[in-house]
């Protein structure tokens, strides 16, 4: 007989649990302290090195350059909130938050741009990297201050010329 | 190690009998043979050595050595070996012999190799499996000269099933709002009895293997692998990381392996609780569904507490994990597991005693043991039909050699047996997590500096909630050269044709759901064509009870 | 004259009762499932919204609409007849007319999906027909047994046991005819894209669902009317006792439906017959013994 009445024990379980529905959005969402949400890029700290762009699996972070500026563009729509960029940033410019309520009806809200100036090379008028990256390199190793005015290609050429001058007296034409 | 050498000697003799070369690399035995010896070797491996055929991989190795290659992957479960049976094929239109008459489980993977790489198989009937019907016939996506973002022009082909007064075809899917994932079954019914079933899947083929070989680096593929499936994603990313670590012979810290095992078992808990809820819903017992998912919510909160996200945990990297389990988290984990176990036991005992649930699950969707072995089914489906196979015990990986657990095996092979296997596995998982938390060693959680040499092969099987999942990786420069995933549901779906015959129509959704299908995992387009005789009978002849 | 107006007013008020009670049942069901559930007036809102949608014709829609409206008409007439019986005068011919109208309404409601040539409708329709055949026949038998035992003024104790078992049968048949789990198989399986409702939309769906809910109301009213007619005199007092009792029984049936699963078409008639045959045999034996003693 008790076997037949067992389904009714569900009522006992139901009264013990009560109503478990949370009244979100009229109350705070239930996210734990470790929840991975939106990332925020600190414009002052970012040096534009592109480590985060290399590490991002869905290509949500992209570097777009033109003649004068390099822009780091973060498209929230593609972000999978894995926080790999937070892991690999050398200066700690990217911090993670617990925000996840990101829905909007205007797609331009979802783009974050960090603009960097490109340095000018004295010799060839070409550009590479960003100015802030050069300052970062100088801070870490002051001896490089003498080489900073040239872009990497010109730096290579002048280094080869200086080695060639020491060894053989000059670079043959 | 005497036992190991005698077993390896048997394989050496087998290789010598077919003029093949054999190398042993850790727990993997590589056999390279000429194409004409492959069916014989495969037959001997399946029938005499009792190995399980997992999948076959076709690779375009023309940039490396000018050939195409076809590798059949077997596992020797009783001795813990992986066996890779490889052959090289020449020319731009390569041909290879088929092993389907010896190993029926190789049916789908050969057709997939034909569709994606263009290898023609001799000795069997061929059909288009993975690609849509309008795809041009000599464009092979997985060849190295096909760019991953190229789109060939396709003529869309549409099919209609005619539903008229006389027909008695009941379509299930593919884009119905009541279904969870896109699948398409055509059930041919006679009155209320299903006489035959036609399946077409692969509506969500996303080209993940091609993407992993072209645009991604080693560390990025972890996140891609996690998104193969929404329910069992973490085991895909663990399997990939373990395969790459095996290929590169990396020494991953023990603590990382323990954390991986703990999170794998948490994922198994959530997957089985989800399935039980869905099974109750399909029987009409919605109160059981709501309560089961209320209990599952605790597991989801636990996952977020441990890894940072309710699903797609994102903590796996090649070389270790990214997030640690601190000491202060342990009491909360143990407390959650205790309440979970008590509530789950109570709810299952009530739910199984509801007469409708018990009577509808028992005796329906039977899969006999011989069919299960021939079709190579995986996971709880196999264990409910009497096959005692579990990759955590047979091919131990991560930290599973440190825990003791039972593998539940039932012999009836009906829906109730599959449900009970999953219920038992929940209790085993809870006990495993407690043991792992007890024994977790201190140390780093990640390898900082390591090197991955190109050209190495890594094969790994991980026991997902749905069965054995296998990843095959050939390493390249900075990214995998070839990555092959075979999810467990891939092998379970052909078993549906056997399970659905002669069943009442009302139990068809329940039977389809009882293999716990994960169509996103299956991930390849399938068209199963039939050339048998199927009677389309007249429904107006009345209801036969 | 006054009585007829009263009957009309009470019947009109009871027409809106099925919608409100269904909303209340959904709230209670949600509470058992530990969630909040829709507001109590939700079914009423759904009905009004559906009535305002466009009419979409399909093969067989004209016949199906006709049958759905016929069902509602028959059920309203049955309701009026039952109300007349309990308020105006205890005329047993009116009572049996009301019961007959209810049973014919069951038949026309089962016919409605069978007129639609969609395989899911056909499957659902045939399932409903099979259940109805077993159920309605037993309902007629049990009402017949009750009226014979009570009408014959027998006093033997065996007759009272027979009466009790016939009453139990009547309540069980009333539960089964409401189309709740475990016997809601007319809607087929959720995963197979529903059964009888598959082609209905807009006002036709609203009419069909309203017919279903009114059937539930009548199925609960009939046993209560048969019991109450002994305890009260004709007049307004009877509906005032009847309506709260209907609410209570509706909620009890709703709770019972929540804690069981759905049965299967081949198991359903067998399990029903296994339940009904012993009970009816007991009650007919009691009747015959009572007749013998009288």
From TrEMBL, chain A:
<feature type="domain" description="4Fe-4S ferredoxin-type">
    <location>
        <begin position="70"/>
        <end position="99"/>
    </location>
</feature>
<keyword id="KW-0411">Iron-sulfur</keyword>
<protein>
    <submittedName>
        <fullName>4Fe-4S dicluster domain-containing protein</fullName>
    </submittedName>
</protein>
<dbReference type="GO" id="GO:0003954">
    <property type="term" value="F:NADH dehydrogenase activity"/>
</dbReference>
<dbReference type="Pfam" id="PF14697">
    <property type="entry name" value="Fer4_21"/>
</dbReference>
<dbReference type="GO" id="GO:0016020">
    <property type="term" value="C:membrane"/>
</dbReference>
<dbReference type="GO" id="GO:0009060">
    <property type="term" value="P:aerobic respiration"/>
</dbReference>
<dbReference type="GO" id="GO:0051539">
    <property type="term" value="F:4 iron, 4 sulfur cluster binding"/>
</dbReference>
<feature type="domain" description="4Fe-4S ferredoxin-type">
    <location>
        <begin position="37"/>
        <end position="66"/>
    </location>
</feature>
<dbReference type="InterPro" id="IPR017896">
    <property type="entry name" value="4Fe4S_Fe-S-bd"/>
</dbReference>
<keyword id="KW-0479">Metal-binding</keyword>
<keyword id="KW-0677">Repeat</keyword>
<keyword id="KW-0004">4Fe-4S</keyword>
<dbReference type="InterPro" id="IPR010226">
    <property type="entry name" value="NADH_quinone_OxRdtase_chainI"/>
</dbReference>
<dbReference type="GO" id="GO:0046872">
    <property type="term" value="F:metal ion binding"/>
</dbReference>
UniProtKB/TrEMBL annotation, chain B:
<dbReference type="GO" id="GO:0051287">
    <property type="term" value="F:NAD binding"/>
</dbReference>
<dbReference type="InterPro" id="IPR029014">
    <property type="entry name" value="NiFe-Hase_large"/>
</dbReference>
<keyword id="KW-0411">Iron-sulfur</keyword>
<dbReference type="GO" id="GO:0008137">
    <property type="term" value="F:NADH dehydrogenase (ubiquinone) activity"/>
</dbReference>
<feature type="binding site">
    <location>
        <position position="209"/>
    </location>
    <ligand>
        <name>Mg(2+)</name>
    </ligand>
</feature>
<feature type="binding site">
    <location>
        <position position="232"/>
    </location>
    <ligand>
        <name>Fe cation</name>
    </ligand>
</feature>
<feature type="binding site">
    <location>
        <position position="232"/>
    </location>
    <ligand>
        <name>Ni(2+)</name>
    </ligand>
</feature>
<dbReference type="Pfam" id="PF00346">
    <property type="entry name" value="Complex1_49kDa"/>
</dbReference>
<dbReference type="GO" id="GO:0048038">
    <property type="term" value="F:quinone binding"/>
</dbReference>
<dbReference type="GO" id="GO:0016651">
    <property type="term" value="F:oxidoreductase activity, acting on NAD(P)H"/>
</dbReference>
<dbReference type="GO" id="GO:0051539">
    <property type="term" value="F:4 iron, 4 sulfur cluster binding"/>
</dbReference>
<dbReference type="Pfam" id="PF00329">
    <property type="entry name" value="Complex1_30kDa"/>
</dbReference>
<feature type="binding site">
    <location>
        <position position="229"/>
    </location>
    <ligand>
        <name>Ni(2+)</name>
    </ligand>
</feature>
<feature type="domain" description="NADH:ubiquinone oxidoreductase 30kDa subunit">
    <location>
        <begin position="33"/>
        <end position="151"/>
    </location>
</feature>
<feature type="binding site">
    <location>
        <position position="521"/>
    </location>
    <ligand>
        <name>Fe cation</name>
    </ligand>
</feature>
Automatic annotation (TrEMBL), chain C:
<feature type="transmembrane region" description="Helical">
    <location>
        <begin position="5"/>
        <end position="21"/>
    </location>
</feature>
<feature type="transmembrane region" description="Helical">
    <location>
        <begin position="94"/>
        <end position="117"/>
    </location>
</feature>
<feature type="transmembrane region" description="Helical">
    <location>
        <begin position="192"/>
        <end position="210"/>
    </location>
</feature>
<dbReference type="Pfam" id="PF00146">
    <property type="entry name" value="NADHdh"/>
</dbReference>
<protein>
    <submittedName>
        <fullName>Hydrogenase</fullName>
    </submittedName>
</protein>
<dbReference type="InterPro" id="IPR052561">
    <property type="entry name" value="ComplexI_Subunit1"/>
</dbReference>
<dbReference type="GO" id="GO:0005886">
    <property type="term" value="C:plasma membrane"/>
</dbReference>
<feature type="transmembrane region" description="Helical">
    <location>
        <begin position="272"/>
        <end position="292"/>
    </location>
</feature>
<feature type="transmembrane region" description="Helical">
    <location>
        <begin position="158"/>
        <end position="177"/>
    </location>
</feature>
<feature type="transmembrane region" description="Helical">
    <location>
        <begin position="63"/>
        <end position="87"/>
    </location>
</feature>
<dbReference type="InterPro" id="IPR018086">
    <property type="entry name" value="NADH_UbQ_OxRdtase_su1_CS"/>
</dbReference>
<feature type="transmembrane region" description="Helical">
    <location>
        <begin position="129"/>
        <end position="151"/>
    </location>
</feature>
<keyword id="KW-1133">Transmembrane helix</keyword>
<feature type="transmembrane region" description="Helical">
    <location>
        <begin position="238"/>
        <end position="260"/>
    </location>
</feature>
<keyword id="KW-0472">Membrane</keyword>
